[in-house]
Specification:
Length: 107
């Protein structure tokens, strides 16, 4: 239980009351670098449009909108149909911090 509470606390530092679907998308992208939106939607068992909105909140904002800056589209593939999603430096720091809350990940 402590591990779960620690994980929630770390996510809450990034966005107070982060929705579970946002956390789920972040963790899936972190553990599957290069996953595209279609596969992410399949893994989350949600419509692609819903997952697209979630990813938009996780992505870096180029127009100064509200975003968490944790995920970006891999640059060398940005113009292709399949747009691989990867963590930003900020996202990698958060993922490392989350892994530190899991005892098995420290071994």
């Amino acid at each position: 239980m402590k591990m779960l509470l620690d994980t929630i606390r770390v996510l809450d530092e990034v966005q107070h009351g982060m929705p579970t679907t946002t956390a789920q998308a972040f963790l899936l992208i972190a553990s599957n670098p290069g996953i595209d939106l279609t596969r992410l939607a399949e893994r989350m068992d949600l419509p692609k449009e819903t997952v697209s909105s979630i990813v938009s909140r996780l992505k870096e904002s180029k127009a100064g909108g509200v975003s968490l800056g944790l995920v970006k589209v891999e640059e060398e593939h940005a113009q292709r149909r399949s747009r691989p999603l990867v963590l930003t430096t900020k996202g990698k720091r958060l993922y490392t911090k989350l892994l530190a809350t899991i005892p098995a990940a420290r071994d």
